[in-house]
Amino acid sequence: MFNKKYRLGLRAIKTAISVMLCMIVAFFLKNSDGFFSSTATVICMQQTTDKSFDAGVHRLLGTVTGGVLGYIALVLLENFKGMQSIINIVLAPLFVLFMIYLSNTMNYKASTQIGCVVLLSLISNQERSFSDAFFHMIERILDTSMGIVIAVLVNKLVFSYKKLDPKSEPKAKD
């Protein structure tokens, strides 16, 4: 049932440090609750700095694409006050399909899921005004960027993973 031999690894510790740093920055900026930057840092923390950077790029591409598509959808919905819920039934799936299409044709499939989440977070909030949606999109991009930068820096600077030189590795005995 439980693995009693399990011990937290360095990646788990670096993830916790990154989340703490995101929360500290959010606290001092007072314009964010730290949720989106912390989520980005959890997702971006990988075994190596390079892998963290790649995960961050995909996360940022998806956030920007989903944000822009969500904003476009809201521009279209602005003309249909009072009917937004009904139009969302058609509009949300169409925009999700378009997000999936864009991610695949632009060859960044790993960005698809987060792009759809950001898109739907914008479209599904019926109480948000048109100008609020624009600022929400910008805040998501900035929060995500902050989480990515923190994850990559912590991964690089805290308990840094060192690749072994293949020449210095002991050879296996036959």
Tags for this model:
174 residues, mainly alpha, 6 helices
Give your account of this protein's structure.
This protein has 174 residues and is an all-alpha fold. It has one domain (10-157). The protein is 70% helix and 0% strand. It is built from 6 helices and no strands. α2 crosses α3, α3 packs parallel to α5 (112-123) and α4 packs antiparallel against α5. The two termini are 38 Å apart.
Shape: elongated
Q: Kindly state the mean pLDDT as a whole number? A: 85
Number of domains: 1
Question: SSE order in H/E notation?
Answer: HHHHHH
Task: Name the poorly predicted regions.
Answer: 168-174
CA(first)-CA(last) distance:
38 Å
What is the alpha-carbon Rg in Å?
20 Å
By helix and strand content, what is the structural category? Answer: mainly alpha
Number of H/I helices: 6
β-strand percent reads under 5%
Helix content: 55-70%
Main sheet overview: none
Number of strands: 0
Brief account:
The protein is an all-alpha fold. It has six helices and no strands.
Topology:
Elements (H helix, E strand, L loop, with lengths): L9 H20 L5 H10 L4 H29 L6 H22 L6 H12 L6 H28 L17
